[in-house]
Amino acid sequence: MSNTTSHGGLTIATELYNFVNDDLLRGAPITAQAFWDGFDAAVHRLAPKNADLLAQRGQMQKQIDGWLKDNASGGIDQKDYEAFLTEIGYLCPEGPDFAIDTANVDDEIATIAGPQLVVPVTNARYALNAANARWGSLYDALYGTDAISEDGGADRSGGYNPVRGAKVIAYVRGVLNDAVPLAAANWNDVTGFSVVDGALQIATSNGTVGLADASQFVGYTGAPTAPDSVILINNGLHFEIIVDDSGAIGSADNAHINDVLAESALTSIIDLEDSIAAVDAEDKVLAYRNWLELMRGTLTETFEKGGKSLTRKLNGDKPYIAADGQQKQLRGRALMLVRNVGHLMSNPAITMSNGAEIPEGIMDAFMTVAGALPDFADKRNSLTGSIYIVKPKLHGPEEVAFTVEIFEAVEELFKLAKNTIKIGIMDEERRTTVNLKECIREAKSRVAFINTGFLDRTGDEIHTSMDAGAMIRKGDMKASTWIGAYEDWNVDIGLACGFGGRAQIGKGMWAMPDMMAAMIEQKIGHPQAGANTAWVPSPTAATLHALHYHKVDVFARQAELASRTRANRSDVLTVPVASRPNWNDDDIRAELRNNAQGILGYVVRWIDQGVGCSKVPDIHDIGLMEDRATLRISSQHIANWLYHGVCDEALVMDVMKEMAAVVDRQNSGDPAYQQMAGRFDESVAFKAACDLVFKGREQPSGYTEPILHARRLEKKAEDQAA
């Protein structure tokens, strides 16, 4: 490593060392010397445990591979399979019932249900947009998306279309009628508002009325006789009705309603994992700096839009006058969680006394907590003084326990109260799923979140069961036995462990940001399933998904679900192997093309541009929000079919080259894009994509990071040498 600084047993990239000393620890209650001394000792104590856990993963996988080779050819005997998994320690005994006792959890996580954003920390604009997505305009979200049809002349092209505008207004009036109904009147009849003796008075064409439930009135801004806005609440979420008789919409509205703002993204995960490409000290410093500045409230981003230079910064809170006349504030930003990397990867930014790279998850824990320390002073983010770290890709209770040990070491170094650092457990690996209760038990005093991640979980399912046979087609996975059981199991275990009103139970991403009508129709299934949050791909999607939480009282739904029969673990362990694979050549090629296109479309931006999350056109030119999870399932699926002879390497390579040309076409408008077709031997991105497929079976747990990181470092070196 060039340009390094030594401290104790650590060799640190000087760029990172200086950032920590000069910026990250500025104002912190610890000296740089004390930090590096404590960090050095903790790293050298914890790193061997990290290595042992990874070795355990590998040993278990070898045992499973061997058993499947010997026993799966005629179909898996479920009883024998589970006995074997128990024997090797993959399945853990389930202990007695318990309830989590996590304290000091913010309301946005514990007692309010609503949307959650996940956003790459390295893109300051996106991170700011996500943090500011606590509030969104319903009028804008509906007008600018396919949530409102273009039938009857309501098209979106050109300037303002009053036909479309009328549809939007009618839709929002319907939302208000359902969520905050009036007493003996309809929101379509409203002509004005006033506040009298702490009560909302609503003028209508048929006289003055109140809300059907007066307690839904929260407060107002402006004068009580003619408020500038009126704030209402339903299921813990707020609406702010903006009144402006001079506004473009309000001037023509009977009630002078110019907009309706909906409380939208309650929480946002600021991501250092699957949605970014951070492979060295340069990348990690950018990630840590952006997180630090979010916590300080100083992050800004200047950009060009519509020929104007705009600067984005964090929103402030929203002052208002409460119904009781008191001056109060509503939170203006999403509560920010931070996702660290898992246990697998190391990073060259720091090496240890034995010359090995530091486990990246250990580094992330210390650095991101240091970055969160400024929030203790002003409580801009957490009102309870908690730090929320989402931990991905954990394999079973031992790895959760190890994460807790890391967090304890961080708390000790920074002299934080025990359990200040909360953990969000991503339930996206098979061994965590089937031992979820015991995973939660290991973190019962600091767990704030569990979440199902379908794509990563499917990638692990394929890799773990690679030797069972050829897997069903990727599109058939959503209807397979294991996945329905997995989604129910997560909720059942969370409720049984006392998550209701204390911690989040989350569901996965809606990946199609341009298909909001379909999202509105389908994603209501997540709160109906008992999840008090679910992931959305954009602030606009957060605003529209928030409407589902007005329709579904999630906590009442959780109370209903708590008494149902728990999902069957044997169903969760059902392997999605094709019983009689008999696909024709066209079916096989179609599956390969779909997988290859997704792999190449994502990888080419990751390797060449360091973009870890973006809207990637699929094979039908539909933009999908992609991160490494999509890559994992697609590469593992092709690797599985190669391994079992469904296709051969020649066919796969032919398809990869075919789809490279398609991806080139789809990115033709990007001046930074480097084409792959015609440069297969030179394109590092194409070679990375091929590695993921042809070397997919040998990747630990089917993860994509080892190949991606190596090839990205290769590409960065190539660009620097050019």
What does this structure look like?
There is one protein chain. The chain is globular and about 80 Å long. It has 25 helices and 26 strands. It is of the alpha/beta class and 722 residues long. The chain is 43% helix and 19% strand. The chain has an eight-stranded parallel barrel with strand order 3-12-17-20-21-22-23-24, surrounded by six helices. Strand 15 and strand 16 form a beta hairpin. Among the domains are: 129 residues, Malate synthase G - maily-beta sub-domain (Beta Complex); 137 residues, Malate synthase, domain III (Malate Synthase G, Chain: A, Domain 4, Up-down Bundle), CATH 1.20.1220.12. It starts with a strand and ends with a helix.
Largest sheet: 8 strands, parallel, barrel
- End-to-end Cα distance, whole Å, is 20 Å
Return the average pLDDT rounded to an integer: 97
Tell me the CATH architecture of the domain at 585-721: Up-down Bundle
The count of DSSP E runs of length 2 or more, i.e. the number of strands, is 26
CATH superfamily of the domain at 585-721: Malate synthase, domain III
Structural class given helices, strands, pairing? Answer: alpha/beta
Envelope shape: globular
Q: Order of strands in the sheet with the most strands?
A: 3-12-17-20-21-22-23-24
Radius of gyration: 26 Å
Enumerate how many helices there are, as a single number.
25
Report the β-strand fraction as a percent range. Answer: 15-25%
The low-confidence runs, each spanning 5 or more residues with pLDDT under 50, are: none
CATH top level assignment of the domain at 585-721: Mainly Alpha
Query: What name is given to the CATH topology of the domain at 585-721?
Result: Malate Synthase G, Chain: A, Domain 4
- Percent of residues in helical segments? 40-55%
